[in-house]
Amino acid sequence: MKGKVVIHREFSIGEVDKRIYGSFIEHLGRAVYGGIYEPGHPEADEAGFRKDVIGLVRELNVPVVRYPGGNFVSGYNWEDGVGPVEKRPVRQELAWMTLEPNRMGTNEFVRWARRAGTEVMMAVNLGTRGPDAARNLVEYCNFSKGTAWSDLRRSHGCEAPHGIKLWCLGNEMDGPWQICHRTAAEYGRLAAEAAKVMKWTDPSIELVACGSSGARMPTFGSWESEVLDHVYDHADYVSLHIYFDNRGNDTPNFLGKSLEMDSFIKTVAGICDLAKAKKRGKKTVNLSFDEWNVWFHSNDADRKREKWTVAPSQLEDIYTMEDALVVGCMLITLLKNADRVKVACLAQLVNVIAPIMTENGGKAWRQTIFYPFMHASKYGRGTVLRCPVKVATYDSREYTDIPYLETVAVHDPAAETLTLFAVNRNLTEAMELEAGLHGFEDYRFIEHITLHNPDLHAVNSAGGEKIRPEKAAPRKRDGPCLDVTLPPASWNVIRLGRALPAHIDRPF
Ligand code: AHR
User: Which domains does the chain have, with CATH numbers?
Assistant: First the structure.
């Protein structure tokens, strides 16, 4: 099959905010204990952090990690997780029905984040708690010294403030499963008051208000609208969450799900703009897509799990080749909406619906979804270009007009590189893709990286990686056109760079 794409230097959507390559660590399953933290493991450093895991997080190039939840945060007393470890309580954790030993908490996580080369996006508990605990945590983390909470942090060995810039006002407060679920009016008022005192404590912080926990929630739309009536003046972002599944084993439909993500983003952006209009406001509220991924493989196992244990295996989805394609389409969708999506977190980072898996006491390894995320995070920095596409479309059980080609280009003017990300949704046919290049006449082909496997259910494991990226050859590389072949059901990264005179060396 054939596809055509036009890449024009001036067709800019917006700048990539690097925080769209964020991720998420929740006190859930083996994300923390046995994931990032495992004292006694041969790879553990003096703080108990697994260096093999830190190495993989660094490979992923994750600029921000949301913490400590998720549903967990709605029952969390942050004070349980600071101070001498031997005095910290073990608690019943009601979101996931486990025991939380509090061996890791705020200061340890900040220390881990520094070692992993990332920043913390902190969530406060607006479930069982409220503005007082939230503003105390901001003071504990961000105030320099001379107050009860800041001096408590210093007495815990952290002299310098943590300087955490991005904060979530609770988590999924629209969901009946949430500890202390609220109505939009209840949450809106609570979030507005928490936001006020948090920003009074540290005016430099940015705040994310809870949007809907999914576009299929019965309150979707009205929730955002009502919450924004209360928080518009105080919040900088509204959150979106989405998880896709292929329970019906219908791959063409599964591959079309990113269309739903796109329409979710556009609808929430519209609601934010409506709030701005109603308030006669000047500020544009942007979007934080702070949970997104594929999640369904582990559902059955999780239903059978024993309750009230520490760090059981939970939400340990093992991802397939087709999941990597869906994650690739979702990454492209985030990029295509770079004008409004400023933060996004792949949920999650280690062991729990994650690109990185570990064995307790054993290896750390890369899931299939690791690769599209790594490629996008590494090469998808700069200006996103809108790429009009000519390609055939198909209809599926839930969606119509799904293009066989999902694609976007990112131009990095500083590095003088142009990267085209592309998914061929056609399961049986390769796509001969012709890319017309406008304003990039002096750019030359660097490489075409592709991820594909005829077995869409193939997975990686601690024993080895069946799914690994490989290099493909360009069909033709001269003139204002680039011709490449996208294998059936494939994720592709096509990289170009400005050619320099022959006597100047370039590192690619
Ligand atoms: O990421 C797993 C869970 O999914 C999070 O705790 C929650 O916010 C969402 O429902």
Answer: 2-10+384-497 (2.60.40.1180), 17-379 (3.20.20.80)
